[in-house]
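Milestone M4 deliverable, item 7.
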Amino acid sequence: AVVSTQSTGKPEGLQGQVAGKMKEAFWDVVRKEVREGDYTQCVHMLTEIRQQIEGIGTIEKLPSTHPFRVLIADTIDIDLIKQQIEHSTFDLSVKVEGIVSILVKLCSAAKDPEIRAITQLTDVVEIFKALYEAVAAIKLEIANYYLEQAKSTIRQHSIEYERSKFEQFLQKHPSGLDKTKEWLRSNKKESPLETMNHAYLQLLISEPPNPETTVLDMGRYKKLGCHLRSLLLSSLLSLKLGTLHSGYAEIPFLTSLHSTLQILAPEDPAPHRDLLYEKTVALCGEKVPGMSVVTLQRVVEGCVDGVIEEKEDDPVLNLLRQRLNGYLIAVSLNRKPTPPKGFALVEAQVVAAGATYLKLVHFNRQVYGPYYAKIIKEINS
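Output delivered:
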């Protein structure tokens, strides 16, 4: 019997070690048999490879008379291979070239060179390992492609469903867009795009408007807004504290401070204001024992209050907020911007938050875009 040659992940524990030893032993047997002119295991593996290729979604649905199915059957004709082995005319390299020519027709352009390189291998074990890996990679590529196609279809149906339900709502409630109109009117800018950009950002503030078109996702916007304020707080503290003492600018300290803040206020800093004051000042006092507690309290409280109350009298906070908002706008327009300066400490989290913001805004824009366009046109007329 053929030992499975495909990896199922990193081997763990005794069972994984035993499986690894069995595979090594199997490949040793293959090498030994081929050197002795015995291709029994090779035939088994070629059969398995053919079955795997024929089992790929797009191929499996083709009739057996389809030219591509015929090509596979002719290229990996097991009965013919057995006859060639029996008459000592079998050439593995020729068979590999034929299989590779099939695989390059199925793979993406990016994998083409990698798969063609299989024909340059000379060790029988490396050849079959490479063939198995190539088939597995192609199956994954095709599966991912169809998954994305399915997601696209589901999204489109979801968009159409949400829009139809909202249309039904408007038929029963003719004034069902009043809050949405006020929301857009309060964010009116020079262009419709700018108006929508600023309107969406407003959904992230601590006391956002509640337009009818965002009711279903308002909880997600609120949660994201709270998370962004916590990231803004960590970034602001790192900059302000760093001006007091070089020790506060050290990465290990800042990382520890950010982790502590996240533990104390995992979602929204507002309900934990006093605790944030106390713990941040305590951590800073431990790091630099000689630092004035009064100075620390003034800086820490100024940062915490400024972020929670969304004050606009701190130029550093204003600059960070402006950069963060600019980043979110660029992300929502699929411009793939670099992370904003001043947020190095929380860069990965900012990028993840941006991705969440993109999903929320993109879906909302697709569902309610026609309503927004009509409202903005009325506002500007």
